[in-house]
Amino acid sequence: MNKKEIQMSRMWKYFVDATADIIQEEGLEHVTIRKVADRAGYNSATIYNYFSEMSHLIFFASMKFLKDYTEEVAQYIQKGKDPIEQYLLAWECFCRHSFKQPQIFHAVFIMDLTDPPEKLLEDYYKIYPADLINIPEELQSILFERNVSKRGRSFLEIALKEGYIKEENVDAINELTILVWQGMFTNILNNRKSYDAQTAVDITMNYITEIVQNANLFHFKEPKQEE
Q1: Which residue, 5, 17, 95, 106, is the most exposed by fewest CB within 10 angstroms?
Q2: Distances (CA, A) of 201 to 26, 95, 98, 122, 206
Q3: CATH of domain 3-51
């Protein structure tokens, strides 16, 4: 990197680390531009020289709390004997971490960022390359995918190629499992259920496992498009 890029990277880290500290100490809902600026030792206007949206700063800071997840999911997947087991294990790991840290996972995977999240992920790992050290290369492309639907489909396409599921069922399995997770995740995020994290994981994975294991017994029809 040239001097300008080094300076940009340094300033970028000041603000991201300051935001992460506030999230750690007070919670994501208490992050403000003024607090971040004060913690980093700069004025609020300076932040907008490096981040066009507050949501971007929260996204980058939230990514710092995903390191345990990204390292653990690789270990989970390696336990699977086939693509279906790997798919279920990946979901189990995702549920465990997302239900424990709903605000963090909302910021990374659901919150409107206005800009393409793939580019933001690329920028993050340029500044924090150490976060990728323990992640197998074949999984890195999946972890760079912030879209939950595309992440899930990556595993199902492997299962399809190896003959574990039918092609006409791939999209239905993917969509149904995501809807199950989203329903539980929304309940937890909005305090609509009093489940502890492990109970929420058990319930969600019971439904997801049933969907995946019984998928080939059913014929999922494509919904008719309105003319």
Answers
A1: 5
A2: 26, 6, 9, 30, 8
A3: 1.10.10.60
